[in-house]
Amino acid sequence: MLPEVRPATFRRSVAEHQAAVRTLLAGLPDALGTQTVPLAAALGRTLASDLTAPRPLPPFANSQMDGYAVRAADLSTGPVPWATLPVAPPIPAGTAAPPLPPGHAAPIMTGAMLPAGADTVVPIEAADPPQFPAFVGGDAPFRDHTTVTLPASFAAGTYVRPAGSDLPAGATALAAGTRLGAAQLGLAAALGLAALPVRRRPRALVLSTGDEVAAPGTELAPGQIHDANTTLLTASLAEAGWDTATAGICADNAAAFEAALADALAPDPDVTDLVLTSGGISQGAYEVVRQALAGRGIAFGSVAMQPGGPQGAGLLALPGTAPVPLLAFPGNPVSSFVSFEVFLRPVLCELLGVPPRPLVQAPLAVALDKPPGKLQVRRGILEDGRFTPLGGPGSHLLHALAHATALALLPPGPGHLDPGTDVPVLTMGDPQ
Ligand SMILES: Nc1nc2c(c(=O)[nH]1)N[C@H]1C(S)=C(S)[C@@H](COP(=O)(O)OP(=O)(O)OC[C@H]3O[C@@H](n4cnc5c(N)ncnc54)[C@H](O)[C@@H]3O)O[C@H]1N2
Ligand code: MOO
């Protein structure tokens, strides 16, 4: 059950707006539920519940080397630091090993089951002779009375992989919330599991607004710009594991915008977990999102942050559609990007148990001025452990953003920060 958020005009701190977004999206984990999918379809999905090992890994004690399975005690019975032992029948991988007769050495292959009684494997290179007898692996019949000489320097347990030494039966193999990559799926396969319980992928509807905004690939009329935000927000969501749909670019006409939104939500057989709009929420005369949605459950206001000051959020209540959480981001592309990184990604990570972007403290390489009392998010790079800004604070500077690998979160408070001031920095990795 999602909470009611009443229309209002707000002035919030960043923490207050983050809390409002968290409350709005609190029902997401339950709404996603669980579905079981084959391993081949589980790549990139999120594990829905703790995965318990149904059997030990490895399932039986086995050899780590091609060599001889022995009892370590049989190697140091005489006055010399070696022992000559009769050779028992060989143990290939994939067979049930018979018990090792006392005082014998059984040729054993890597991964083969250690016979009962053996506790050590001596690699073939350490044996004399350092090759297996001709009857091992060939068609020749087993020859009794063959012997091998082995050094006594191998302590009990050497080159043995005990049952459960990777993971005991009943242990937690992977925790709920784990994003399933190659290694995690490999572990599930090794445990014998053919399918895994995963969360339904969340799904968002992304809409850009503005008479001036035209789709990439189209010719621009005078005064028009290309739509960056649909792509930017869709890609941000996809990186966070979401499926996305778009209702395209909506003109600055409240009735048409509302109709487009209702259309995109109503006939859709797939659940929409979130609507994300950009543009049309500030103080202008043509603020289509604000005008259309202020009476539909969405609160608009300002957050003490730059860029990304204007914000809207709430539970969208359109006639004929199910209530759905909606976040309205400002139209400037960097404002939309920063809004995603500050308000949405951390909440999604927290709710869905995904690790957030790493946050480090780093000194500023240069002096920076900012609006006092607001959190300013500067884009830049970490170089020699210091934060160097790329471009200025303007929220239209997409080129600098595209080269940034770090976001400095300059705290509200004084408007001037000296070089060397330690500030929190979100690291984003290399641009792809
Ligand atoms: N008088 C005031 N004016 C503005 C204020 C204010 O407080 N008082 N706030 C400014 C801030 S800060 C921001 S951010 C913007 C937010 O405005 P909107 O959310 O209403 O966005 P728009 O006006 O529609 O667009 C802003 C800007 O971004 C461009 N844009 C919009 N959509 C896209 C898109 N999909 N792709 C690329 N670029 C887009 C648009 O052309 C504008 O240049 O308001 C300030 N004004
Ligand atoms: O707050 Mo606006 O998002 O700076 O440009």
UniProtKB/TrEMBL annotation:
Q: Which cofactors does it use?
A: Mg(2+)
Task: List, for all copies, the residue spans of the domain called MoaB/Mog.
Answer: 205-350
Catalysed reactions listed for this entry: adenylyl-molybdopterin + molybdate = Mo-molybdopterin + AMP + H(+)
**Mind telling me which SUPFAM superfamilies this protein's record contains?**
MoeA C-terminal domain-like, MoeA N-terminal region -like, Molybdenum cofactor biosynthesis proteins
**Superkingdom, taxonomy of origin:** Bacteria
Which CDD domains does the UniProt entry name for this protein?
A: MoeA
Pfam families in the record, alphabetically?
MoCF_biosynth, MoeA_C, MoeA_N
Question: Quick one: which pathway?
Answer: Cofactor biosynthesis; molybdopterin biosynthesis
Q: Name one GO biological process term.
A: Mo-molybdopterin cofactor biosynthetic process
Mind listing the GO molecular function terms for this protein?
metal ion binding; molybdopterin molybdotransferase activity
Alphabetized, the UniProt keywords read: Magnesium, Metal-binding, Molybdenum, Molybdenum cofactor biosynthesis, Transferase
Kindly give the InterPro entries that the UniProt entry links to this protein: MoaB/Mog-like_dom_sf, MoaB/Mog_dom, MoeA-like, MoeA_C_domain_IV, MoeA_C_domain_IV_sf, MoeA_linker/N, MoeA_linker/N_sf
Cellular component terms (Gene Ontology): cytosol
The UniProt record lists the EC number as: 2.10.1.1
The entry's family comment says: Belongs to the MoeA family.
Outline what the protein does.
Catalyzes the insertion of molybdate into adenylated molybdopterin with the concomitant release of AMP.
Annotated protein name in UniProt: Molybdopterin molybdenumtransferase
Taxonomy of the source species? Bacteria, Bacillati, Actinomycetota, Actinomycetes, Micrococcales
